[in-house]
Amino acid sequence: MNVLKAIRVDYSPGVKGTVHIPGAKNSSLALLAAACLSDEVVTLQGIPNIGDFRVICKMGEEVGLKIERDLLGDVHIDPTGIHSTTFDPVKSSSFRTAYYFVGALLAKYGKVSVGYPGGDDFVSRPMDQHIKAFEMMGATLTYHKNYYVVEAKELTGATIYFDTITSGATMNAMLAATRAKGETVLYNAARDPEVVDTAMLLNEMGAKVTGAGTSTIRITGVSHLHGCTHRVIPDRLIAGSFLIAAGVAGGSITVKDVIPEHLGSLISKLKEVGLEIELGDQEITAYAGSKLKASRVRTAMYPGFATDLQQSMTTLLTQAHGKSIIAEKIFPKRFNHVGQLRKMGADIRVRSGVAFVKGKAHLQGAMVHTSDIRAGISLILAGIVAEGTTYITGVEHIERGYEDVVQAFQSLGVSVSKENINFGRNNDVSNDVM
């Protein structure tokens, strides 16, 4: 008998409630690595207790990096006991952003070994811009079957023009340059809030970083960094998914502890589709309109429409009137969720990185699988308005980015739970609550 962990979602339209948004996953993973640049303990507030965080803690234990969460939820990072910079290739390949430890540790230790980027299985994410930055600062890379090694006797400042806008390479180069010798200038840099958040932490530790949030970032290397306390920015992508949920399921949802300007492109698109949006200083409320309208969506780097919200937006547009077009310009193959939505009755065609969505689909509950975090949320949203019951497997992918997604949706009135799905000899499916 095979047993799979699954999230069960029953038809439950008309959501209503408030969600407090946690710290940003994409920022937190960079900040945890950035703290290793310090020569003292760094305290980070608001780090979500997600799967990727727990993997980093295990990685740290093996090399002498001490990471502890106190009773208030604050995370204390003590890099003073690091005795090795050779990370387990399996653990470090289980999520994408282990590469930040290269940028954070290279200048201090001269050599870092880490597994190839893993994580979301929706498309290969090239590291060419990371490699370009490291090499221009004087590093050499050696590639092995399951890991790669980056070495540098001394990192020196360089003028780096990124061939494409990439938040990961921008942050990684910024980390490496912080303790490099001389000045580094990053042109065509990513402008994401997570880049700004990382720069803020570095400066609070004593770094000299200017221009974060613009396309040109300047970093003057320093020889010493001290400890500090820093709070991670709220997760704009989680907030965006819940705002979209109001449109999919009907009703109203308020997201609190957010920075509304981080969601400007999504807010504009939701208004265009037919939702009513009310903005506060640190909160946003989305109200479902009487009729959802079809739209054209084109993903872009910040401040454009985020690729991480494309999947949830696809689910929303299956419920709109008319035909919508979604052009995925960041990761053209990021459409693993489409096949699963089709199982539920969605009418979607994908061609050359563009999805054509026929609206007003009558969705039916089904057994579906997610292979990445954001696709999982899009399937939960679909399950809310699908007739019957939907079971979503691949729960571990969702938990990489959400601390307790089930509880969050339950607080909005959604009938959702974690269950074990048992497959018997005759392929009958039974379920036991976990």
Topology:
Elements lengths: L1 E9 L4 E6 L4 H10 L7 E4 L5 H13 L2 E4 L5 E4 L10 H4 L7 H10 L1 E5 L12 H9 L3 E4 L3 E5 L7 E3 L5 H12 L4 E5 L5 H12 L3 E3 L5 E5 L8 E3 L4 H14 L1 E6 L7 H10 L2 E4 L3 E5 L8 E3 L11 H8 L5 E5 L8 H8 L3 E5 L2 E5 L8 E3 L3 H13 L3 E5 L1 H5 L5 H6 L5 E8 L5 E5 L1
Parallel strand pairs: 2-14, 3-13, 9-10, 17-18, 21-22
Antiparallel strand pairs: 1-22, 1-23, 3-5, 4-5, 6-8, 7-8, 10-12, 11-12, 14-16, 15-16, 18-20, 19-20, 23-24
Helix pairs in contact: 1-4, 1-7, 4-6, 5-6, 6-7, 8-10, 8-12, 10-12, 11-12
Structure, described:
With 434 residues, the chain is α+β, with helices and mostly antiparallel strands. It is built from 14 helices and 24 strands. The chain has helices at residues 25-34, 51-63, 89-92, 100-109, 128-136, 167-178, 193-204, 236-249, 264-273, 310-317, 336-343, 373-385, 395-399, 405-410; strands at residues 2-10, 15-20, 42-45, 66-69, 75-78, 111-115, 140-143, 147-151, 159-161, 183-187, 208-210, 216-220, 229-231, 251-256, 276-279, 283-287, 296-298, 323-327, 347-351, 354-358, 367-369, 389-393, 416-423, 429-433. A five-stranded mixed beta sheet has the order 21-22-1-23-24. Strands 2-14-16-15 form a four-stranded mixed beta sheet, with helices on one face. The chain has a four-stranded mixed beta sheet with strand order 4-5-3-13, with helices on one face. Strand 15 (276-279) and strand 16 (283-287) form a beta hairpin. Helix 1 (25-34) packs parallel to helix 7, helix 8 packs parallel to helix 10 and helix 11 (336-343) packs parallel to helix 12. The longest helix is centred in the middle third of the chain and has 14 residues, at 236-249. Mean pLDDT is 94; it is low at 425-434.
